[in-house]
Amino acid sequence: MEFLNLQKPHNSALETGKLLIAEPFLSDPNFARSVILLCEHSDEGSVGFILNKSTELTLGDLLPELYTPLLKVYQGGPVQLDTLHMLHRMPASFGGNEIYPGVFWGGSYEALQDAVVNNEYQPIDLRLFVGYAGWSAGQLKKELDEGSWIVTDLAEDLLFETEPEIVWKQAIKALGEQYAYLANLPINPQLN
Hints:
By secondary structure, this protein is α+β, with helices and mostly antiparallel strands. The protein is built from seven helices and ten strands. The chain has a single domain, classed as 3-Layer(aba) Sandwich (VC0467-like), CATH 3.40.1740. Helices cover 24% and strands 32% of the residues.
């Protein structure tokens, strides 16, 4: 497949803070056309969040005492859908672990609660996720070797400012002109 040959020069090392872009024909329904921010990567395994899988949920649906229609909740992956995670660029308010310059994972949920109650946050600086994407030791490397993912640098606008339904296409286009045609390929080329 031509795509597999094209992607190799642009693959960078698997590490925290990198984006994983699903190849156009990845058929796994959990990850088809997904873009994942890798928040932890080590010899023991990897953890990330799908940036473009919307849900109908808001924070108030999960925590009724924190009703706010402004904070949508995304599905971060198929693992532990009963957990809530946050990515943000507000370390002074929430804390957390810096996974990319200016981007933080986790932090204080008490601070999140206070920020919501006191309306001291900007929705554009915060993403909430139920569940996560996880890989055991060596699993993600194997998927990369099989050509399932392109590894590239994070563009903050994809995380915080791009509507979920166009994140995959924007991530592909950001790889350069030689990749732009991939953004318009059908999910199933047999149906074309």
